[in-house]
Amino acid sequence: MIILGINAYHADSSAAIIVDGKLLAATEEERFTRVKHWAGFPAQAILFCLREAGITLDQVDHIAIGRDPKAKFNRKIMYLLRNPMGGFGTVMNRLQNSKKISSLENEFAAITGIDESIIRPKIHQVEHHRSHLASAFFASPYDEAALLSIDGSGDFTTTMIGVGKGNKIEVIDSVDFPVSAGSFYTSFTQLLGFPHYGDEYKVMGLAPYGEPKYVEKLRDVIQLTDNGLFTWNDKYFKSAKDVVVTYGDDHIPFVSPLYTEYTEEKFGKARAKGEELTQYHKDMAASVQRFTEELIFHIVNHLQKRTGLKNLCIAGGVAQNSVANGKILRNSSFENLYIPSAGHDAGISMGAAYYVYNQLLDFPRAEPVFSAYTGSKFSNDEIETYLKSRDISYTKYSDTELFEKVADRLIDSGVIGWFQGRAEFGPRALGARSILADPRRLDAKELLNAKIKRRESFRPFAPSILKDYIPEFFEVVEDVPFMEKVFPIRKEKQSIIPAVTHADGTGRLQSVDKSVSPRYYRLIDTFRQKTGVPILLNTSFNENEPIVNTPAEALDCFLRTRMDMLVMENCVVER
Q1: Residues 385 and 306 occupy one common structural domain
Q2: H-run or E-run covering 125
Q3: Within 13 Å, how many C-alpha atoms sit on residue 72's CB side?
Q4: Tens of pLDDT along 94-140?
Q5: 385 and 252 part of one domain
């Protein structure tokens, strides 16, 4: 049974393919278009998935679209009736987008040459948040779990809670558009002077530099409700008629300011471009982050009491808040937590495919997903051919020579571009498309920002740690395969790994498992044998662009930055 899933005409467009319940391939379209959060039809991602499966589209049994324009249709109409002018522009924009979703067979036909009449009967439309829930639960190791999907908005829902048992998901409750935890966080992200789609992580990174002084004021913005969900004070948010949410002809997501003059009256004028980040801005970031955590704890605690379950699965854009994720088990009665590698909207493609396979077709669950390595891969021969075509000098090493050489260069203050195996699915580099450095260096952050990343100084870099050493370095011990949680670093260890210790003494770790990431594990272990530290600083292999996907992109990034070494499989390029 072969199921192709896609997220189309929505931010972080993607495709995934499941064969007999196993996730065979999954990737974001941005890796091919080289445009962050690209939101069109994922043509190249689809073709990639088909190639990886060794099939053509007519051999696919079902096609799952992570969007259902019919979902909550009556509530959409009621919303329009209550806001006859207020919501027209936004709803019309969404209806036009929905038309594209409703006629995708012509897009498939255009890229594959397969007749639309063959494609049309295979298509299933799966509601946005049900796709999120499926991406978390059906990929998890739990037979039973409470489920939470929480983001900006999708199919007129912004939050959905449910229960997963075996191969079925049951939705318990939801929060309707426009009330949204994601929009709350985005609004204050914009107010703090970060205007671009996806900038929310900057607020999360800024928060440790401030004090959460304004949490009480934020209680007037969002109100927690007795049913375990929430509502909001619409004085702080522009009405739909004043908000532009578009993906445009260039397929780049754009969200106009969500905050109102009333918000600025209560919380201060929005920070202008280039304006200094003051202590007030840092305190505001800390307050927004702390309140968001309280909101998440409120939801999950009610969900636990309501279901009585010990396992929790979370997805959705807000599930990318790794700081909150790292605190959930300590602030609830849940014992286990699973978040997929692509918890954001790219994961919709995988979730929609799983929903069709398990929920609709009633197939039993397959093995859980603990590997994010489902993207592009290139052999040594392909890499050598490319380097020769560019007249680039390189050396090819055996594995033993390679790991020794790279570890030595890291110790000698080197910054390494590391390109190995299959690319990761999701926003985090997990040792397949990574830039690596020595975590012991006090100046590593400055070194990376000067040589490559050119990003805000307050943003942290992450530690990749060998799984068995987590108790030695972190106060909380959990598997974190997808770098989806932040934990406190033990005080006595913070001075040993300053480059990956954030301002509040925490780190967004990746637990590296030998069975999942054998080559990355071996590199870190080689570094450990030489230094006594089982950790590397890991950041994504890119420079203000999507993570590199091919040897060409890796080489170009290396050449235009001041990286010291480029390692692509066993081929090494040095300056």
Answers
A1: no
A2: strand 123-125
A3: 22
A4: 555 555 666 799 999 999 999 999 999 999 999 999 999 999 999 99
A5: no
